Amino acid sequence: MGVDIRVVDGNVADSDAWYRGLHHGFTLPPAFTEEELALRRAKIDLRRAWGAFDGDRCVATYRSFDQRLTVPGGRDVAANAITAVTVSATHRRRGLLTRMITGDLAEAKERGDTVATLVAAEYRIYGRYGFGPATTAASWEINGLRAGLDRRVPVPEPEDGGSIEFIDGAEVRKLGPEVYERFRPGCPGATDRPALWWERVTGEVRMTPSWTEPFHALYRDADDTAQGLVTFRADTNWTHGMPDQTATVSSLIAATPAAERALWRFLLSVDWVTKVKADHRAPDELLPDLLPDPRAAAVTGQTDFLWLRPLDIPAMLTARGYPAEGELVLQVTDPMGLTEGRYLLTASPQGAACVATTRAADLTLGTGALATLHLGEQSAGRLARLGRLDEETPGAAARADLLFHTPRRPWLPDIF
């Protein structure tokens, strides 16, 4: 009997088996209570969830959903977000992922999605499907005792006349989305946060029994507009009879530089907290230079994070903003054949156009390299030196760098 790949939505037995298969694939405890399964059925959309079934057992999982991805210039595009990709150790190397992702990407292109997105657990899997790493995430650790902030005096008032207050989960669900939507247009690589994201981070919906309530602090500017929000947890560690706590940040978003400065300084001023940790942060975080002693903040890890795959190259290239005027002809290769072709990009700060062309190519690159270039994560010159981009016209890589330049590196704040 062969392995049957099918959509699991609408079939309770299939969806329950799918969740157990998901946990097997991620080596998580596969047992669920009926209440946990019922909550997942109620809250998670499985209309685009695929499962590979060997008899009654789900041996591979895959799910996609609608997403909005912010691009340079502040606009966003329709993305086919991919998550929950697993293959059981008993069924590896049988082409199960290839069968699922091929069908899903074809449907996404037909649907009109501009790109596909995912967060890769392993680096070497997704390049063969036309994806490329488009953002980097950094882990930071701040030694609060070395930061240079004077802990003997009250927390300083935010410099713009704003204020910080602790708020509860209900207020986060009310105010958090508006803060995030003020922040998101200025952050290429950020994606939208659906209502379930806010329900889970505040405990309104608890899908794991290990959830513990965090602290939330809101920043308001002098006009009383919510401009920043931080969520963190603190341990209860003491060393030699003295408080020695670590605050671990799960989310810090700021729509203004003043809000960003105020929230980091607030965290480092919390009584008993001597260390602050934060994962999945921007690689060019302002953080160290916000402190009197920048060396107190150190990057403890850095890795690729968001992966991007073009589905509609003209729509993708015309959606983003460009700081300069110019033209480029891109010869794009695609391992799945979805976007293979030659495209003329005509760009300026006022807008862009992109059409198929027969003109000679200036640059030849694969969809993965285009994904890495698109949000501003790497330069065309660096990709050329790495052998991931061929310069057909002298000076074309430098021209591409003028067009694709961004004032900040792209950043995805969330795992999905």
Could you please describe the fold and organization of this structure?
The chain has 416 residues and is of the alpha+beta class. 25% of the residues lie in helices and 33% in strands. It contains ten helices and 21 strands. The strands form four sheets. Strands 1-2-3-4-5-16-6 form a seven-stranded mixed beta sheet, with helices on both faces. A seven-stranded mixed beta sheet has the order 8-9-10-13-14-7-15, with helices on both faces. α3 links the parallel β4 and β5.
Topology:
Blueprint: E1 4-7, H1 12-25, H2 34-43, E2 49-54, E3 57-70, E4 76-87, H3 96-111, E5 115-119, E6 132-133, E7 136-143, E8 163-167, H4 169-183, H5 195-201, E9 215-220, E10 226-234, E11 238-239, E12 242-243, E13 245-254, H6 257-267, E14 273-281, E15 297-304, E16 306-310, H7 313-319, E17 326-333, E18 341-348, E19 351-356, E20 363-366, H8 367-374, H9 380-385, E21 389-391, H10 396-404
Parallel strand pairs: 4-5, 13-14, 17-20
Antiparallel strand pairs: 1-2, 2-3, 3-4, 5-16, 6-16, 7-14, 7-15, 8-9, 9-10, 10-13, 11-12, 17-18, 18-19, 20-21
